[in-house]
Design goal:
It comes from Pseudoduganella violacea. This protein is of the alpha/beta class. Helix content is 43%, strand content 19%. The protein has a single domain, classed as 3-Layer(aba) Sandwich (Rossmann fold).
């Protein structure tokens, strides 16, 4: 998949982390869309003109948490194959199991290593081809 045709939906309420993620991804040539809370995420999912190739999703979001956002994504048939990487400071086994059971493909703990995160993104995008 050509990076410039690849849209990544970033759902992150921390403005600083959101901007870092957008910067990292756009430097790799990906297109990005940022949703800053759970309500914006729900709207982006429900009103998408284009399916993203991947979703980076924080767990702790205002209004609708990341676990519920994963369920919203997985409840939509057209989104069922979109990889979801949870990105969060919550790192207990219970949180990881809950995220994976909700439908997340992977779980990255903050603070994340940028190159590791990008490698995981590339891996899921390769699987989409």
């Amino acid at each position: 998949m050509d990076a410039k045709h690849t849209l990544i939906l970033v759902i992150e309420d921390d403005e600083h982390i959101g901007q870092i993620l957008i910067y990292m991804l756009e430097r790799q040539g990906y297109r990005t869309l940022l949703a800053a809370d759970g309500l914006a995420a729900r709207k982006a999912i429900e009103e998408a003109d284009e399916l993203p190739s991947l979703v980076l999703l924080d767990v702790m979001l205002p209004y609708i948490d990341g676990f519920e956002v994963v369920r919203l994504i997985r409840d939509r048939p057209e989104w069922k194959d979109v990889p979801v990487l949870m990105l969060t400071a919550k790192h207990t086994e219970q949180d990881i199991v809950r995220a994976l059971d909700a439908g997340a493909n992977d779980y990255v703990v903050k603070p994340f290593q940028p190159n590791e995160l990008l490698a995981r993104v590339r891996r899921y995008l390769r699987e989409q081809q």
